[in-house]
Structure formats: C-alpha cells, structure tokens
C-alpha cells in the first residue's frame, strides 16, 4: 500500500488580526517554510484568509509526502521560532492523513 499524504493545518484565530503582520507572513515566513521543508517532503502549501464569521484570521495548509517526512523534517525550531516575528497569538494545529481527493469535472 502506498504511503498516505499528510495535511498539516496551522490556524490563527480572529484574535490574531490586530497584530498579525500579513506582509511578513507571506514574504518571509512562508518562503522560510518552503525553503526549509521542500527538500524534506513538503509538496505544496496554501494560505487562506478568513471571511467574516469564518472563525479564523489566517490558515495555512501544508501537504506533505507522508507522515514520516512530516515527523522527521529538520529546521522545526527555526520555523516555529519565526512565529513571534508576525504575531503574538499562537496558532492551533491539526494533522491528518489524506483519505480521498478529487477534482471537479
């Protein structure tokens, strides 16, 4: 059986909005994530901004090759340590295996 891809979601709540530096996040933090983890199993990433009533301010979704790649990725302290440069609010995180995926016709 082929290994399952992993989805890692990092969600910043509405409380982060007043102090969240979106420019830094998009132009420094996300490039850091890509630079440090692309060679170690990170396949893609997306950043979403919440709409009114969505329950979140910003959410990043990272797709990894498999759970082993995610768990063994180096530079975790550097990437997580960078959070203080764009917000004072800690995110919630969710990790899951891709069970099914499709495309609209």
From TrEMBL:
Q: Which Gene3D superfamilies does the UniProt record give?
A: 3.30.70.100
A molecular function (GO) held by this record is: oxidoreductase activity
**Sorted alphabetically, which InterPro entries does this protein's record hold?**
Dimeric_a/b-barrel, EthD_dom
Matching entries from PANTHER family are given as: BLR8190 PROTEIN
Family the entry assigns: Belongs to the tpcK family.
NCBIfam families, A to Z: EthD family reductase
- What protein is this chain from? EthD domain-containing protein
